[in-house]
Amino acid sequence: MADTDTATDSTRHPPVDFRTEPARYKHWKLTIEGRVATLAMDVQEDGGLRPGYELKLNSYDLGVDIELHDAIQRLRFEHPEVGAVILRSGKERVFCAGANIRMLGQSSHAWKVNFCKFTNETRNGMEDASTESRQVYLTAINGPCAGGGYELALATEHIVMADDGNTSVALPELPLLAVLPGTGGLTRLVDKRHVRRDRADVFCTLEEGIKGQRAVEWGLVDEVVPRSRLEETVSRRATELAGRSDRPSAARGIVLSPVERTIEGDRIAYRHVSARIERGRGLAEITVRTPAEAAPATPEEIATRGADFWPLAVARALDDLILHLRTNEETIGLWVLRTEGRGDVVEAYDRLLVDHANDWLVREVRLYLKRVLKRLDVTARSIFALIEPRSCFVGTLLELALAADRSYMLDGAREGEAAAPPAVRLTAMNFGPYPMPNGLTRLASRFLAQPGRVDDLKGRIGEDLEAHAAAEAGLVTVTPDDIDWEDEIRVAMEERAAFSPDALTGMEASLRFAGPETLETKIFGRLSAWQNWIFQRPNAVGSHGALRVYGTGERGRFDPRRV
Amino acid sequence: MADTDTATDSTRHPPVDFRTEPARYKHWKLTIEGRVATLAMDVQEDGGLRPGYELKLNSYDLGVDIELHDAIQRLRFEHPEVGAVILRSGKERVFCAGANIRMLGQSSHAWKVNFCKFTNETRNGMEDASTESRQVYLTAINGPCAGGGYELALATEHIVMADDGNTSVALPELPLLAVLPGTGGLTRLVDKRHVRRDRADVFCTLEEGIKGQRAVEWGLVDEVVPRSRLEETVSRRATELAGRSDRPSAARGIVLSPVERTIEGDRIAYRHVSARIERGRGLAEITVRTPAEAAPATPEEIATRGADFWPLAVARALDDLILHLRTNEETIGLWVLRTEGRGDVVEAYDRLLVDHANDWLVREVRLYLKRVLKRLDVTARSIFALIEPRSCFVGTLLELALAADRSYMLDGAREGEAAAPPAVRLTAMNFGPYPMPNGLTRLASRFLAQPGRVDDLKGRIGEDLEAHAAAEAGLVTVTPDDIDWEDEIRVAMEERAAFSPDALTGMEASLRFAGPETLETKIFGRLSAWQNWIFQRPNAVGSHGALRVYGTGERGRFDPRRV
Question: Which residues lie below 8 Å from residue A500, measured CB to CB, with a gap of 6+?
Fold first, then answer.
């Protein structure tokens, strides 16, 4: 069983690097014609991220998805003129066979779960692009579209399928592999496309899937057309959708230059973000810093700074760091968030994001920060924030403390230090632009008991709140003074390191998502939990489990007890 | 690991019987004074349902909860005058220590999960009594109230706690046992009581819990009072709440006489419900029949029939059968629902339930049917409905088909049989009185894609819909004719039996709960899934897992990898 793995993935394999660029893509081709882009999936069979499997039939592994994630990001920032993106296969006779089964079969439990999380985030990111960034995704299906392949299509807003004997959509995970579709498929079937639940039941048990008109009737795809008219139909739809987009056709994109990062021993450094791993204590300290340079004044100046624009640079660094730590540092269970710098600087940048909210690039930066903060929300690590002298938990950076499971704020100054007592400060960015996966702001999620407090806090925007006031306002968890600080923090960290990592994951996933539910909370809160469970069960991963024996000619043998 | 259990619980132990009555209670004392009832928990240490553990400190096992469930049911039906129920401990120095840990430690995975499901349903039933039946539960806490003990309190509407050194509330599952509170605790903390998530995080990691005024401030309890004033305060609150209830103080309750049941080999029979288990095929066929006697005409006549009133008798039989099959027949993974009798009879009973909806007893019957149908919704078994000649899937009984994962309806008559082709029929009972756990009717959940269809169907109440019309209306899944029927059903059943039971559980839980979320769907859809996962993990149940070593003096040893 995957359970009994003793080596971590990160010790058995070289670390995964999430940074890439189109010139290095092995599996995707990005082309752009006017307002319409096309992302063609053409997976290189021998291009797997790790040895031991072949990526046949456009099946994918994490490496394929890292490129997709990169392409989606670049389309948003580098191509303001693009209003629609066609997702298609670059292969003649198959759309996509989903996640590679041999890869899953040989992966540890943690790797499988982490892989699913990233693919889920990437699919959610596509939907975010369609609805928030008005760069609408649509899919052209030629040939079999199964499992993760169909889940990819489900994450787009319009699905056109060829009506031929070879083409169908399917979610064959249950009958074939004894697991669930791991990338939001079940949720999107019934909660996005509103497929009738009894039809969804039938569909999810049909290995061969559903073809033609019946797929339209059941709501599985939006239209079917003869193979000969597939390209033309999708092109026309894409042009229509792009025509309705509010993205500026004449604007120039910015270049997402490579994220610069150094890793030296247990230190990871980006320009404005750094991390220090303390292996013995099972934690990583992450610090975000304000820049030396003043905020620019106009959208033009922002565009000129491009990827160096501080909020964007911070988003990219944090995003990369989160993915790096999640994937390559499985045993580091506690992330401690710190900030350093001048609150005024953060406030000035926040004002810029508010004042030019409708500028396409400012919108992209804001949406990216939103997605990075959401990545924190769904990360299976404990998160503490430490608010100390010289910190700048202000506005956008205050969201880091609000995303944390707990925050500790020093009450008063440090004896013998010149720095003033720490303060937190609200800006307009705390009141809407960064919704959590549940659709509410972190403040609204925090004050479900007294929603009126959020309005009260609006009146305190710009005010410096020291420990006592911040605690009173409900913004921080614990406020030890200088005498207690060291001990209190140390004990809390030691205690966290001593708890069961699994129970912490389950508890945090339950406490972080209070309030309303969305596709995203259902995917991360519920579907992932069921999949985690099934990925552990002998019926899937035991020596006769279906996932284990797939492709050997043997069929899975099951313990018939229902749980 | 619990995983590798080979014997089923049902083969190792005598079957569990869910039927009981106050005279046989070992663990609870029910007293009634005027409009206020008191349920005192006084668990008998050596009264465990199974050998191998002692129920110390008012800790509980399934047997304790079976009595609680019975008491709640009886209070609703037998005591219309009761408007408030005080939950308290019958022991001097402890409220309740939660589920018994040794019992959990020695139980199979399936038993633990099933136990949690029943306790969850019982807690939800208390909330249903408080809000729908206006019999409001409140808690008086004297002494430690931990884990499942506090979860019991959380399921009541008002919690009063003694302010003394000995009394606290706690959810120590995570620090002590490396599992989650299994009975809705996390969800009710943040989604019912709206405890701030960072405080909830702190609270759930504190073995010793929280006492006194701080518990009020954090929203964990509603009030604290000196120990000497506990009884009086709770009494006063109960009297106030009872005073606001619309339950009739002068009405006479009905007696819930013992549910009569015979089990002979693989046949289980109640008066209006029967089941036949086909072990070789892994399925149970369940048939609900209409009564010989005509429906009564008035609320008085209903009260006279009492527990023999057909809808109530069906509810009680189905409830018992569901619990029996879930607990004692773990390997029977498919339930096939059938009905037999006259649709007119069901329609007449439904009309009665509608016409006298405000009568206290009719309301109780309707609410009970609602809860039984919800039990089906959250049952981890595949459910098919077969709609054949002589069936009566009408109104309330049609809900059985709508609750099924799929329904098969014979198109036309059977060759050589006199019986007319089957038809289904809607009544007003399909349009509101039986919401699912998501708060929507089964019809509304079914037509999320086209909500207008529900209104259209209202216009067809009372119409007999044969297969073609029923399929057109979206009410049934598949409509084979007589030639195809046998094969189609047989293949579907064989196929279902061949799938992984775990993957089916995860799939069904995902597809059944589309649409909005409620406390209930969060508890059953999300919290249960996380708990299922954690209950499987070596960190909880492995040879050094915290749940396994609890009480041995050893501490749990954990694999530090975060998943």
Answer: B174, B178, B179, B534, B537, B539, B540, B546, B556, B558
Query: Please, are residues B465 and B423 in contact by the beta-carbon 8 Å criterion?
Result: yes
Determine contact, residues B261/B15, Cβ cutoff 8 Å: no
Sign of CA dihedral A22, A24, A28, A33: positive
Task: From A133, A89, A19, A535, select the one nearest A362 (Cα to Cα).
Answer: A133
Q: Where are the strands (E) in B110-265, listed by range?
A: 136-141, 145-146, 158-162, 169-170, 223-225, 262-264
A330 in Cβ contact with A373 (< 8 Å): no
Residue B533 DSSP SS3: helix
Q: Is residue A27 within 8 Å of A60, Cβ to Cβ?
A: yes
Query: Which chain A residues contact residue B447 at CB under 8 A?
Result: 196
Which region among B382-386, B439-443, B508-512 has the lowest average model confidence (pLDDT)? B508-512
Of A445, A538, A563, the CB nearest to B380: A563
pLDDT for A144-195, tens place per residue?
999 999 999 999 999 999 999 999 999 999 999 999 998 999 999 999 999 9
Q: What are phi and psi of B490, to 5 degrees?
A: -60, -45
What would the mean pLDDT of B61-73 be, rounded to a whole number?
A: 98
Q: What is the C-alpha to C-alpha distance for residues B82 and A516, in angstroms, rounded to an integer?
A: 34
At residue B28, φ and ψ (nearest 5 deg) are -130, 150
Residue numbers in A near B1 (CB within 8 A): 3
Sheet holding B283-289, edge to edge: B262-264, B267-269, B273-278, B283-289, B334-340, B382-387, B406-409
Task: Tell me how far apart the alpha carbons of residues A541 and A555 are, in angstroms, rounded to a whole number.
Answer: 13
Place of tokens 């198959």: A94
Across the range A97-117, mean pLDDT stands at 93
The whole-angstrom separation of Cα B328 and Cα B268 is: 12
Mean pLDDT on B448-469: 97
Task: Identify the three-state secondary structure at position B398.
Answer: helix
The gap between the terminal CA atoms of chain B, to the nearest Å, is 19
For B6-27, write each residue's pLDDT tens digit: 444 555 789 999 999 999 999 9
Closest CA to B45 of B102, B122, B126: B102
CB atoms A331 and B175 under 8 Å? no
The residue written with tokens 């937190």 in the block is: A424
The pLDDT score that the predictor gives to residue B562 is 87
Residue found under tokens 């019991």: B152
Burial of B406 (0-12, 13-18, 19+ CB in 10 A): buried
Interchain proximity A114–B563, CB inside 8 Å = yes
The pLDDT tens digits for A37-47 are 999 999 999 99
Check: CB of residue B491 under 8 Å from CB of residue B160: no
Q: Distance (Å, rounded) from C-alpha B43 to C-alpha B119?
A: 16
Spatial CB neighbours of B184, under 8 Å, sequence gap ≥ 6: B120, B123, B124, B151, B154, B155, B519, B523, B527
Cα-Cα-Cα-Cα dihedral sign, residues A6, A12, A13, A17: positive
pLDDT digits 0-9 by tens, A287-332: 999 999 889 999 999 999 999 999 999 999 999 999 999 999 999 9
Is B532 within 8 Å of A406 when comparing Cβ atoms?
no
Q: Where do we find the tokens 């340079």?
A: A293
How far is the C-alpha of B189 from the C-alpha of B180, rounded, in Å? 13
| Cα–Cα dist A147/A252, whole Å | 37
Q: Report ipTM (2 d.p.).
A: 0.93
pLDDT of residue A547: 87
What's the pLDDT tens digit per position in B271-299? 999 999 999 999 999 999 999 988 999 99
For B563, which of A447, A527, A532 is closest by C-beta distance?
A532
pTM of the model: 0.95
Asked if the Cβ–Cβ distance from A529 to B534 is below 8 Å, we say no
